Amino acid sequence: MSTRTVLHEADIARALTRISHEILESNRGPDDLVLLGIPTRGVTLAQRIATLLAEISGQSVPVGGLDVTMYRDDLHRNPTRTPQPTQIPAGGIDGKTVVLVDDVLFSGRSIRAALDALNDIGRPAAVRLAILVDRGHRELPIRPDFVGKNLPSSRAERVNVRLAETDGVEEVTIAS
């Protein structure tokens, strides 16, 4: 199995900075924004983006985590991890622009599950999607609004995102 690094620490930081600027531009500022990361690495990325948004705009943006484990339609095929608690910021999501944040977009099934989970929590004014790596191969009609890197890949390849907070190293690799 060969592995190559496609994003290093500086590349990830640059991508998140660009995504943060795009989110602010798209929303015309930080008002009524809520970031919800999809565990595990999506939560870490959402927290980083929230920090960047506060640095850029001078205003904090609420951030939380949205566990989608029990909303997935492929639980019977894929081994699952222990569900994490969903943490919605104090102001809730009703009437807000919710930006879902995840590390890799592949089939779109996690995002579909996230949309179902959101329906059980409240009614946002709009839902946007921020992804660090978009590798294609969609099975559902889901498209990200903010992308760190488009990474064309084959179905046989595996994209791995490693972040300092969860993995002790900062990189995105592709293994074939």
Walk me through the structure.
- The protein has helices spanning 9-27, 41-57, 109-121, 164-167; strands at residues 3-7, 33-37, 63-65, 97-105, 126-134, 146-150, 158-162, 171-175.
- It is α/β, with parallel strands linked by helices and 176 residues long.
- It has one domain: Rossmann fold (3-Layer(aba) Sandwich), CATH 3.40.50.
- Strands 3-2-4-5-6 form a five-stranded parallel β-sheet, sandwiched between helices.
- Helix 2 links the parallel strand 2 (33-37) and strand 3.
- The chain starts with a strand and ends with a strand.
- 36% of the residues are buried.
- The mean pLDDT is 94.
User: Would you identify the CATH architecture?
Assistant: 3-Layer(aba) Sandwich
The main sheet comes to:
5 strands, parallel
Q: What's the number of helices?
A: 4
Radius of gyration: 16 Å
Averaging pLDDT over every residue, what do you get?
Answer: 94
Order of helices and strands: EHEHEEHEEEHE
CATH topology: Rossmann fold
| Level-1 CATH class name | Alpha Beta
Task: Tell me how many strands there are.
Answer: 8
Q: What is the share of helical residues?
A: 25-40%
Whole-number total of structural domains: 1
